Amino acid sequence: MLDTGRLFISVEKKEAKLVNGGTATFQTSLLDTCALAIARVVALEDEVLAKRGNTFFYISSVATTQRDILTAIQAYTKTEEKEWNGEFVGFGKGVEGES
After folding, report:
1. How far, in Å, CA of 77 to CA of 86, rounded?
2. Listed residue (4, 5, 62, 3) closest to 28, CA to CA
3. Residue 8's pLDDT band (boundaries 50, 70, 90)?
4. Which of 7, 31, 73, 86 has the smallest number of Cβ neighbours within 10 A?
5. Contact 97, 24 (CB under 8 A)
6. Are 10 and 52 in contact (CB under 8 A)?
7. Phi, psi at 19, each rounded to 5°
């Protein structure tokens, strides 16, 4: 089963809520990618870690959009957009990909 609840896409119901048109790019990561990145950070030498200090590091497997994911799901399930119920919700300006 494909869990897409956090992306506002229900494969079973063929419903999608596209936030700001579904075109805003966001970063997401696979659990395996996160585990590998953390293991590599932990394995760094103390001198390297000391130079970095107490800073953040970012992990990303892919940059995508809701629209890209919906298109991939439709291709995988061999369905067309007209078979899906869609709703557009907006959260205003300031989201990447929106003007």
Report:
1. 16
2. 62
3. confident
4. 31
5. yes
6. no
7. -75, 125
Q: Do 15 and 86 contact (CB within 8 A), yes or no?
A: yes
Extract the tokens encoding 37: 């990145």
Q: Which two tokens stand for residue 48?
A: 């390297």
Query: Which one, of 95, 93, 90, 84, lies nearest residue 13 by Cα?
Result: 84
Q: Rounded mean pLDDT of 11-33?
A: 89
Beta-carbon contacts of residue 24 (< 8 Å; ≥ 6 apart): 65, 66, 95, 96, 97, 98
The structure tokens listed for 18 are 């596209």
Are the CB atoms for 65 and 97 separated by under 8 Å? yes
User: Pairing relation of β-strands 9-10 and 15-19?
Assistant: antiparallel
pLDDT digit string, tens, across residues 33-89: 999 999 998 898 888 888 887 888 889 999 999 999 999 999 999 999 889 988 777
